């Protein structure tokens, strides 16, 4: 017996389906189905994943594209027999989604009337209205309608079956069997119940009347199908399946063509642009090898018909250039010579040899990889330019599938099971997710969950099951799909949460699977900061700068000396805790060293055990050897150690005989091996290929282990090369123009690893004066002024928490030349009381009051409802006690998050509340492995995936930042201090390696009670 399931919803029918598309496909194949239709509700979001699995695993299962819809009491499934029907279905979904808010849809009769190609399976509801809907369907779609009969084995099913058969006889509609599948296995029934409760924002108990009464919505074996459905119904389902011949591989992307001037082909126009770029980029003539590479790239672009792709990117970056928006392209194709000539990237190809097979592969058959980063505060201008140029019908953002992670899973499942919200918040707050050696289930049991109870066992099981489930679609960070014709012919489009944004229903992985063009228009905060620094430098010194100019000036020894000392707070990429530890060891001296520096502090090289061999070879402690000239050609620049993803791919080619296409399949397998284990299928070919070419088995095994280290974490040289340009530019600006650089950073927040407080403290350590926010001096943004011949930072109103930007601009714009004389002047200007109170709390009214307490009295004096002050002359303030230094500190942090007065550690130490401890600046005087006590404000925690449960704390005292290493066992034993301390005392052992100093934590002591009311948030990255 054959069977085709024509009505099946995956978990992309959000909070309804209880199985992944891949699970449904595997189960259907296991049961021996001949076809499976994935028919999510008004959506094609899950179809590509099912298609990809069938294709990758070469399963003998036909996938049918479809969707289920509801209109009042009508429920229908639309299936796609051909490409025309597919485009029609995409249009229907897009129209219904665009009429409604994000996540909803509004189908209209007109949508169904317009269906001319889709096959229709009508699902009667057993109600009186069925007759009217049946008549309507018969009138408009008689030849393409079937009645789909479900067997849910409910107590009223006999009447339902009779009702459907009567309708079929009256309307002459054939009957087909449908499973109405919501889960691949009956074991998912509890999860389906929980999802139903979550969708209603209630508990399972509260929605029990709406829950499935049995497990009949699970996928059935063919044996069971044959027992509950009449044979003619099953035969009719197979007949429908045979009519459906459409396959997603038929989709063909067409590039927008209006970018090409009349009278020229796309390739001719691209060649002319490259020729002009050559004159700009290579003013002293093109080296022969570069010229050959340019021609090779252009020939491949022409052969694979990608000129429109490069022209599309070129058009976007030229718009940004004209608008003065800083940008930088990255990616394997972005760092080609063609992209350098088109000004898509500033990376000089003479400095970086990108693997050509990663530029475009004939065998790969997918679009080139180009990401373009734009200033994060101005990217919206670029996005709206794309929408305006191509229209909403032809341009939309890719989706990102938001999935359940630990916190959301605990919160939603717990609520559905009736666990109190306060208990769930307690669980979430106190489970240490950084400790990968102690699972969350055990920790929750310690926190009071009873694992032996039915509810406790179900809670743990269901949280585990739902993690990774799609929760909803969100917009991608910047992946645009642009088409020649209406986009809804290719993929459904729906509204994003943000106004004036539309998204397609597929994410970036789906687009890659179908080889559809995605233009990545991404946001990068450092580009905003660099552009603002350039403006400040030109404004105050008259010097005009650009990234390209700094690139030409690179390898400045003074800048690299600063980098080698890890003086990199605020600069791009090399500012993290791990990077700062590596900089004094690797000691970058040139641009390419930075490329390596950025890539080596990544999980790939670390897990592949490549970092220490590289450092030893660089320092001369270990000889640099190569097993062959072929391997040397790949690894010579990195001293025989593979650091970049491209090198691993190239090694597979030169050492194991992989073709370019096979090497790219290896790359794709590396990206998902932990999830699928796909990488292991290459092991035999790699090992055999290397041994056959004369490499010893130990070398071959080591290379494979390194490839495994890169699994999911490989960092391409092309991306690192682009990032290194910005790392150098930001370092150069910090060294030569620190005041401008810090001001630009502060005006570009939020971005990077550091808070405004940390940036300002670092600025002061670099002898940059900082002036407090003041109503008579500040503007909205921070700006540059001079203090005793030094460039200084004048803090702006933007640093005051809760102060409206329009109010701040009003104060700055309407301020008299001589300044405001009193609080009354601000009130008369129209500044509201709440804003005045925020200004007072930030001590921004100090120009006409002694302190923030006095300023608040002045505000109270203006309250006509307070007769106490009526007898006082205006602005006469009663004698009140001024805040002490500690009160000032708390107020500063509460109002602005920063203080220009004494550091908390200084105040507490002066008050003799801390006991004996060592400051950051004195750690260098301590001997290696000696005992030490440090104390500081917790400003950061990092738990990299490679750190085997280690957490790196950053403690800030009044002299700088202290690096603390907390092992998993220490964290477990002292969980409260580990998770909750804002002021932390650490007793431990000092470790020194050259200029790198760590404190290995032994005892953690939470001293937060000393700073009660202190508002300093830690930046946690894990």
TrEMBL record:
Keyword match DNA repair: yes
Catalytic activity: DNA(n) + a 2'-deoxyribonucleoside 5'-triphosphate = DNA(n+1) + diphosphate
EC identifiers of the protein: 2.7.7.7
GO molecular-function terms, A-Z: DNA-directed DNA polymerase activity
Subcellular compartments: Cytoplasm
Domain (Polymerase/histidinol phosphatase N-terminal): residue spans on this chain: 4-73
Uppermost EC category: transferase
Alphabetically ordered keywords of this record: Cytoplasm, DNA damage, DNA repair, DNA replication, DNA-directed DNA polymerase, Nucleotidyltransferase, Transferase
Major location category of this protein: cytoplasm
InterPro entries given in the database record: DNA_pol3_alpha_NTPase_dom, DNA_pol3_finger, DnaE2, DnaE2/DnaE/PolC, DNAPol_HHH, NA-bd_OB_tRNA, PHP_dom, Pol/His_phosphatase_N
CDD domains, sorted: DnaE_OBF, PHP_PolIIIA_DnaE2
Function field: DNA polymerase involved in damage-induced mutagenesis and translesion synthesis (TLS). It is not the major replicative DNA polymerase.
Family, similarity comment: Belongs to the DNA polymerase type-C family. DnaE2 subfamily.
Annotated protein name in UniProt: Error-prone DNA polymerase
């Amino acid at each position: 017996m054959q069977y085709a399931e024509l009505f099946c919803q995956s978990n992309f029918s959000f909070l309804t389906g209880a199985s992944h598309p891949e699970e449904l496909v595997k189960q259907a194949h296991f049961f021996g189905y001949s076809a499976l239709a994935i028919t999510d509700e008004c959506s094609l979001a899950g179809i590509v994943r099912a298609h990809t699995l069938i294709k990758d695993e070469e399963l003998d299962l036909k996938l049918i594209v479809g969707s289920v819809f509801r209109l009042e009491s009508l429920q229908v499934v639309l299936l796609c027999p051909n490409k025309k029907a597919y485009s029609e279905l995409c249009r229907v979904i897009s129209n219904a989604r665009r009429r409604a808010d994000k996540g909803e849809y509004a189908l209209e009769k007109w949508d169904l009337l317009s269906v001319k190609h889709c096959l229709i399976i009508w699902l009667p509801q057993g109600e009186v209205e069925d007759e009217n809907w049946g008549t309507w369907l018969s009138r408009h779609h008689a030849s393409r309608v079937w009645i789909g009969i479900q067997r849910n084995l409910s107590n009223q099913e006999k009447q339902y079956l009779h009702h459907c058969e009567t309708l079929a006889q009256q309307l002459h509609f054939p009957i087909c069997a449908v499973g109405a599948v919501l889960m691949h296995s009956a074991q998912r029934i509890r999860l389906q119940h929980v999802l139903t409760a979550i969708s209603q924002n209630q508990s399972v108990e509260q929605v029990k009347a709406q829950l499935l009464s049995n497990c009949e919505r699970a996928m059935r074996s063919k044996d069971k199908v044959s027992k509950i459905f009449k044979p003619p119904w099953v035969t009719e389902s197979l007949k429908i399946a045979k009519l459906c011949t459409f396959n997603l591989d038929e989709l063909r992307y067409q590039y927008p063509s209006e970018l090409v001037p009349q009278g020229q082909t796309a390739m001719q126009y691209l060649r002319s642009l490259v020729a002009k770029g050559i004159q700009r980029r290579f003013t002293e003539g093109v080296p022969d090898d570069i010229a050959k590479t340019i021609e090779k790239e252009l020939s491949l672009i022409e052969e694979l018909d990608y000129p429109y792709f490069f022209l599309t990117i070129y058009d976007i970056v030229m718009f940004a250039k004209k608008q003065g928006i800083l940008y930088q392209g990255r990616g394997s194709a972005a760092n080609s010579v063609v992209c350098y000539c088109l000004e898509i990237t500033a990376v000089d190809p003479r400095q970086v040899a990108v693997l050509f097979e990663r530029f475009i592969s004939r065998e790969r058959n997918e679009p080139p990889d180009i990401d373009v980063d734009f200033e994060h505060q101005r990217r919206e201008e670029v996005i709206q330019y794309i929408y305006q140029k191509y229209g909403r019908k032809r341009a939309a953002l890719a989706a990102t599938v938001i999935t359940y992670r630990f916190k959301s899973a605990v919160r939603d499942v717990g609520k559905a099971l009736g666990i109190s919200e306060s208990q769930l918040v307690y669980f979430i707050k106190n489970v240490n997710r950084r400790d990968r050696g102690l699972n969350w289930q055990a920790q929750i049991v310690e926190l009071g969950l009873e694992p032996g109870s039915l509810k406790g066992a179900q809670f743990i099981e269901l949280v585990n099951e739902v993690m990774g489930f799609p929760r909803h679609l969100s917009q991608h960070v910047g992946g645009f799909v642009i088409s020649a014709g209406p986009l809804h012919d290719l993929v459904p489009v729906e509204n994003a949460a943000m106004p004036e944004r539309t998204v397609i229903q597929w994410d970036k992985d789906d687009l890659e699977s179908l080889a559809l063009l995605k233009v990545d228009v991404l946001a990068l905060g450092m580009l905003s900061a660099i552009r603002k620094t350039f403006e400040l430098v030109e404004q105050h010194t008259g010097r005009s700068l650009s990234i390209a100019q700094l690139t030409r000036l690179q390898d400045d020894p003074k800048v690299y000396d600063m980098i080698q000392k890890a003086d990199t707070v605020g600069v791009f990429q090399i500012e993290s805790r791990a990077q700062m530890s590596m900089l004094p060891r690797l000691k970058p001296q040139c641009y390419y060293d930075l490329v390596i520096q950025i890539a080596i502090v990544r999980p790939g090289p670390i897990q592949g055990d490549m970092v220490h061999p590289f450092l030893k070879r660089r320092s001369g402690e270990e000889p640099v050897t190569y097993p062959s000239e072929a391997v040397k050609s790949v690894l010579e620049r990195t001293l025989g150690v593979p650091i970049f993803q491209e090198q691993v791919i190239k090694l597979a080619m030169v050492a194991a005989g992989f073709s370019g296409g096979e090497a790219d399949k290896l790359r794709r397998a590396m990206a998902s091996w932990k999830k699928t284990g796909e990488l292991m299928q290459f092991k035999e070919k790699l090992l055999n290929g290397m041994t056959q070419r004369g490499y010893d088995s130990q070398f071959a095994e080591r290379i494979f282990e390194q490839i495994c280290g890169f699994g999911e974490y490989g960092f391409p040289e092309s991306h690192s090369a682009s990032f290194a340009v910005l790392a150098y530019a930001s370092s150069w600006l910090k060294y030569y123009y620190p005041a401008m650089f810090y001001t630009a950073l502060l005006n570009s927040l939020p971005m990077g690893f550091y808070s405004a407080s940390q940036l300002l403290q670092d600025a002061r350590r670099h002898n940059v004066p900082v002036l407090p926010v003041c109503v008579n001096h500040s503007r909205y943004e921070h700006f540059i002024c001079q203090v005793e011949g030094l460039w200084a930072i004048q803090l702006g109103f933007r640093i005051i928490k809760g102060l409206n930007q329009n109010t701040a601009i009003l104060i700055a714009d309407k301020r008299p030349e001589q300044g405001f004389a009193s609080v009354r002047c601000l009130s008369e200007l129209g500044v509201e009381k709440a804003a005045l109170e925020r200004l007072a709390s930030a001590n921004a009214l100090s120009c006409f009051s002694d302190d923030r307490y006095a300023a608040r009295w002045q505000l109270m004096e203006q309250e006509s409802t307070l007769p106490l002050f009526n007898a006082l002359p205006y602005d006469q303030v009663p004698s009140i006690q001024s805040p002490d230094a500690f009160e000032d500190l708390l107020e500063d942090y509460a109002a602005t998050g920063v203080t220009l007065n004494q550091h908390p550690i200084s105040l507490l130490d002066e008050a003799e509340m801390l006991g004996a401890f060592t400051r950051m600046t004195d750690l260098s005087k301590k001997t290696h492995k000696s005992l030490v006590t440090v104390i500081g404000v917790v400003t950061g925690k990092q738990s990299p995936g490679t750190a085997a449960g280690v957490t790196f704390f950053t403690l800030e005292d009044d002299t700088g930042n202290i690096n603390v290493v907390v092992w998993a066992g220490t964290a477990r034993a002292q969980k409260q201090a580990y998770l909750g301390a804002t002021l932390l005392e650490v007793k431990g052992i000092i470790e020194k390696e050259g200029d790198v100093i760590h404190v290995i934590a032994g005892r953690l002591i939470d001293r937060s009670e000393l700073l009660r009311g202190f508002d300093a948030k830690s930046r946690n990255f894990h």
